[in-house]
Write a structure and sequence with these properties.
By secondary structure, the chain is α+β, with helices and mostly antiparallel strands. It has two domains: 6-46, Orthogonal Bundle (Arc Repressor Mutant, subunit A); 60-140, Alpha-Beta Plaits. 37% of the residues lie in helices and 20% in strands. It contains five helices and four strands, in the order αααβαββαβ. The two termini are 20 Å apart.
Length: 150
C-alpha cells in the first residue's frame, strides 16, 4: 500500500501484537478517534496489507511439541515436478508451512508432530514416498527465542 504513514505502521504493530484488540483501545494507543482508527484498519484490509486475523496456536499444547524444518530437494527441476510436490504436501496436516526457496534445494517445510517417532513416520512414510524427492535434511527446533508468526 503506497502512502502508509507512521500511524498506519503503529496500527499494524499493535494488531500484530494483539489481533483481538478492541478498536477503542487500538484508537487510544495510536492517538486517533475510534471512527478514524476503524477507517484506517478497513483501508489496510482493502489494500491487502492486513490479510486476516487468526488464532496463534501453541503446538506443544496441541500435542505437537516436536517442531522441525525439513529441506527438500527434487530430482526434477520442472514446473510439473514442483506442482506434484506441492500437491502432495498440501494435504499433509503435519506441514504447517511450505516455502519454495532458492539455492541447492527447492523447498523448506515447517513440520509439527507429536514426537520423534511421529516425525520419523512422517519423514519416511509421507515425504519419503513423494515421487521426485531426491534429498531431505532435517533441522530440529530446540527453542524459538523470537517467533513473530501469527
Amino acid at each position: 500500500m503506497a502512502g502508509m504513514d507512521r500511524i498506519d505502521r503503529r496500527i499494524l504493530r499493535e494488531l500484530t501484537a494483539d489481533g483481538r484488540l478492541p478498536n477503542t483501545q487500538l484508537a487510544e494507543r495510536v492517538g486517533l478517534s475510534p471512527s478514524a482508527c476503524l477507517r484506517r484498519v478497513q483501508e489496510l484490509e482493502r489494500a491487502g496489507v492486513i490479510r486476516g486475523f487468526r488464532a496463534v496456536l501453541d503446538p506443544a499444547a496441541m500435542g505437537r511439541g516436536f517442531v522441525a524444518y525439513l529441506t527438500v530437494g527434487l530430482s526434477e527441476h520442472s514446473k510439473a515436478g514442483q506442482e506434484r510436490f506441492e500437491q502432495a504436501v498440501a494435504g499433509m496436516e503435519e506441514v504447517r508451512e511450505c516455502h519454495n526457496i532458492t539455492g541447492s534445494i527447492e523447498y523448506l517445510l515447517r513440520v509439527e508432530v507429536e514426537d520423534l517417532a511421529a516425525y520419523k513416520r512422517f519423514h519416511t512414510d509421507k515425504v519419503g514416498t513423494i515421487e521426485g524427492v531426491r534429498q531431505m535434511t532435517t533441522h530440529v527446533v530446540m527453542g524459538s527465542p523470537k517467533d513473530e508468526r501469527a
